[in-house]
Amino acid sequence: xxxxxxxxxxxxxxxxxxxxxxxxxxxxxxxxxxxxxxxxxxxxxxxxxxxxxxxxxxxxxxxxxxxxxxxxxxxxxxxxxxxxxxxxxxxxxxxxxxxxxxxxxxxxxxxxxxxxxxxxxxxxxxxxxxxxxxxxxxxxxxxxxxxxxxxxxxxxxxxxxxxxxxxxxxxxxxxxxxxxxxxxxxxxxxxxxxxxxxxxxxxxxxxxxxxxxxxxxxxxxxxxxxxxxxxxxxxxxxxxxxxxxxxxxxxxxxxxxxxxxxxxxxxxxxxxxxxxxxxxxxxxxxxxxxxxxxxxxxxxxxxxxxxxxxxxxxxxxxxxxxxxxxxxxxxxxxxxxxxxxxxxxxxxxxxxxxxxx
Length: 357
What we know:
elongated, 5-stranded antiparallel beta sheet, Rieske Iron-sulfur Protein
């Protein structure tokens, strides 16, 4: 409702002067003639920083200290991102064992953000002007005199922010705001050539024994019967290891013993030992673990999307959406009679990725 539509008797009384309208402590008493009187603003109380320059300088140093802490926290974020290994874990009471990298990144980033905010709040509450200004409502389209007033108020506010006079605050604030975005820039690091060739390699290397996943014991050729399916992992990889899930996702093996005469692929026969072949357990479609074996046909089936591989013919795909054969691990027997790897897989394990081939 516009002021023209308000009955005359219900309109607030006009103030005599600008001081009454905007001054502190100006109070109008409500009565029958003026039921909606403006109570005015309470008297302004000066802060200690307004009357004591030493207190103002202390507040300035506090704000500068907070901005400086933000800069140091940003540097700590960058240093943590570069220096702390992803696999390292630390104990934090009462949370328990957590990733040292995640803890350092979260703590440093939180401190950097908090101290910028705390510094800005302390600056506003102790050094910027806290004088309240009342202004009457005006039409949405501001007249020229109002625009001029807003511009003047802005300039006055900029002047009262003491940004030009408090150079220590200004410089440390600019430093904190300039350094903080580097935290986000550092995250772009993983969009580059990293992780290099890590996707092409697993834990397997020459001389590493094949360990039964169920018994956790090294495998001998006699432990693998013809037609059986056995799952294996690299020697030294334990379930309580911090990186167990990451490593087993690439290194998991399935061991099958075939009659050497039934092996059609020459390379597969050369890489086997007495008909024992070792293939990656990870399906080359979307990385599901393969667990179904058909003894008569020597086929293995992925339970997720029914990709089927022929283990008697280089584990080539004979059905389903998988794009290529399962990688084979070359195996042999060490001096103690245990099955061992003779190297790593020659191609990446699991689904195809952009650098395959």
